[in-house]
Specification:
By secondary structure, the protein is α/β, with parallel strands linked by helices. 42% of the residues lie in helices and 21% in strands. The strands form 2 sheets. Strands 2, 3, 4, 6, 7, 8, 9, 10 and 11 form a 9-stranded mixed sheet that branches. Strands 1-5 form a two-stranded parallel ribbon. The radius of gyration is 18 Å and the shape is globular.
């Protein structure tokens, strides 16, 4: 188990990410808040990813730890969850290898986290699970603007009024979120039925009487390139296009099974949520 000497553990999962990794790391070490330590798990890269990481370890001695479990090619979600399981810290942030963090990302996120914790728990150390997430600026591979706000696609305004929408819509994005230790504890281990680490953590937090809070501050350039463009586009697709595709039907069944088995949500209740909130 890795013990974080700083307050925030930034968890970076890498795999053949050399193309954009250097720019991401540069943005990370230009943060206005430097009370963080970077923990990296590489999933078996064959490009220059490890060389870039070694360069930054020399540039920033004592600020980066490589976490190795000897099990490559487990995928992004498992990589992030293994990092989460391997590190003890007050707060955690997931970091993708190909984005670009705005200089005040950590500062703004941790400030909002402390505000939510102060409202959620009166204890010195908050024992209430809390997840906070910010907005994202969607950009192309050259960081040219695609959309100013990803929150608009995610319908965050509806989520704030109807938190149960979290059961049927992807409300939080891993690279934009922070979770406290209590949220981490209720999220481990990840269910074999879960597919996305960020969605799983948010669901665990909400179903354990925690707080999931999303703010409108844009703190990150969410880079879209190659296959990951589908991730951003899917949030903007219409309900009928999603629902009546084979992929959409499989996702519906998988989510219903996960919510029923892990959180006790009945199938009829899930269907009601799906009807009420998916089309918005």
């Amino acid at each position: 188990m890795e013990q974080n000497s700083r307050q925030i553990a930034v968890l970076l999962a890498t795999y053949n990410g050399a193309r954009f990794l250097r720019e991401q790391l540069e943005s990370l070490f230009r943060q206005s808040c430097d009370d963080f330590h970077l923990f990296v798990r590489d999933d078996g890269s064959t490009d220059s990813t490890l060389k870039i990481l070694a360069d930054f370890m020399q540039l920033h001695p004592g600020r980066i730890t490589l976490v190795s479990d000897g099990q490559p090619h487990c995928g992004a979600a498992q990589s992030f969850m293994r990092l989460l399981e391997s590190v003890e810290s007050d707060y955690y942030m997931f970091c993708d290898q190909d984005d670009f963090w705005h200089a005040t990302k950590i500062e703004k996120t941790v400030a909002h986290m402390r505000d939510v914790e102060s409202r959620a728990c009166r204890d010195t150390v908050c024992t209430t699970p809390v997840v906070v997430s910010t907005d994202l600026r969607v950009v192309d591979e050259n960081r040219d603007l695609i959309r100013e706000s990803f929150n608009e696609d995610l319908r965050i305004d509806v989520f704030r009024k109807h938190p149960q929408m979290l059961c049927v819509r992807h409300v939080v994005t891993g690279c934009a979120m922070m979770l406290n230790r209590a949220a981490r504890d209720v999220s481990l281990p990840m269910s074999p039925l879960a597919t996305m680490h960020d969605e799983w953590v948010a669901l665990c937090t909400q179903f354990h009487d925690g707080w999931v809070s999303v703010v409108d501050d844009v703190t990150i350039d969410y880079r879209q390139h190659g296959s990951n463009t589908l991730g951003a586009d899917s949030a903007a697709k219409g309900f009928f296009r999603r629902a009546f595709s084979v992929k959409g039907w499989r996702a519906f069944c998988a989510a219903a099974k996960l919510l029923h088995k892990e959180f006790g949500l009945s199938y009829p209740r899930y269907l009601i949520y799906k009807i009420l909130y998916s089309w918005l």
